[in-house]
Specification:
single chain; 318 residues; mainly alpha; Substrate Binding Domain Of Dnak, Chain:A, Domain 2; 2 strands
């Protein structure tokens, strides 16, 4: 554990002889430790969330590249209705030329070639799908350089940096807690010394007020008590201020974080919705504005769904 943790251990462990003397102080000292760990966990989670946000377009682009590979395979490898074929005699023919008498005229007794059956793969649809996947990848590439820079710096300056400030504030209060615990320990020990001297004198039947050693120990005890009470008051004030700052931080930074996340992913969703995605896709957002709002105010009919379906008819909402 670092220096801050060592300071807290001094509060809770090194002064075990005074544990229980001030239960409220003990509770607050331990609470600082828990709060420190909570801030560290929050910072790690925020950093991970921001990293995921920044990499989202790239991950989506990789998915688009995967679909492009599949579409390219269909586009270049599958037989189409107009693809060149060979009949059983090895003579080339195409699906668009069912009459192949010129090719078969030189062979006597050869069976009349039959036109190939209709293709099972639609080449036109395969081409459309490939183009749509490429457009999707290009859109995600643009997102990675355009959108995150709008939100990342805000989250860094108003959320992550504020967490660091709270961790630093926590360390200062813990340092004051250590000073308070040291003063408490000195006071408790001085009080024990004065009490022990008083018992010794009483057993001898002597006047306590006339004993110089007892008087000196009592003065030392009272001095240390005043110092302890002063440091305790400082600690309590700093602790209360920190709790108030923690509440303020939680409210303000949460709002900034959520606003940034919503704004960022809204732009991602809108880009996906209107980058030639299937018009009837179940993932199509229902809350985003009409595509005319994203294209300069001019309304446009949806594009082909890229899967052979018809464009989704526009429906006027009331």
């Amino acid at each position: 554990m670092g220096k801050v943790g060592s300071k807290l251990n001094d509060i809770t462990n090194a002064n075990a002889n005074v544990t229980g003397y001030n239960p409220e102080f003990d509770y607050r000292s331990k609470n600082l430790r828990r709060l420190k760990e909570a801030f560290k966990a929050l910072k790690a989670s925020l950093a991970k969330a921001m990293s995921n946000m920044e990499s989202t377009p790239q991950h989506l682009k990789e998915v688009g590249n995967g679909y492009s590979g599949v579409a390219a395979f269909l586009n270049y490898s599958a037989g189409g209705g107009s693809a060149t074929r060979r009949d059983s005699t090895g003579i080339e023919m195409t699906g668009s030329t069912p009459n192949v008498k010129a090719a078969a005229a030189g062979e006597s007794g050869a069976a009349t070639p039959v036109a190939p059956p209709p293709a099972r793969v639609d080449r036109e649809l395969a081409t459309e799908s490939l183009q749509a996947s490429k457009r999707f990848c290009e859109a995600m590439e643009a997102l990675s350089t355009r959108v995150y820079p709008k939100y990342g710096p805000t989250m860094l300056s108003k959320v992550i940096s504020e967490v660091d400030n709270m961790i630093a504030l926590n360390a200062r209060v813990m340092s004051q807690g250590k000073a308070t615990a040291d003063c408490m320990s000195k006071y408790v020990n001085a009080r024990k010394s004065a009490a022990a001297r008083e018992r010794t004198i009483s057993k001898k039947g002597k006047d306590v007020t006339a004993d110089e050693t007892h008087t000196r120990l009592v003065n030392d005890r009272d001095t240390k008590e005043r110092v302890y009470q002063r440091e305790l008051a400082r600690f309590d004030d700093q602790y209360d201020d920190m709790m108030a700052e923690t509440q303020k931080f939680a409210a303000e930074s949460t709002e900034v974080f959520l606003d940034s996340v919503v704004g960022y992913y809204r732009e991602v969703v809108e880009t996906i919705d209107y980058t030639d995605t299937p018009a009837r896709s179940k993932t199509r957002s229902r809350s985003v504005p009409h595509n005319g709002d994203l294209m300069g105010g001019e309304s446009h009919e949806p594009m082909s769904n890229g899967l052979g379906g018809s464009p989704k008819p526009s429906v006027k909402t009331v």
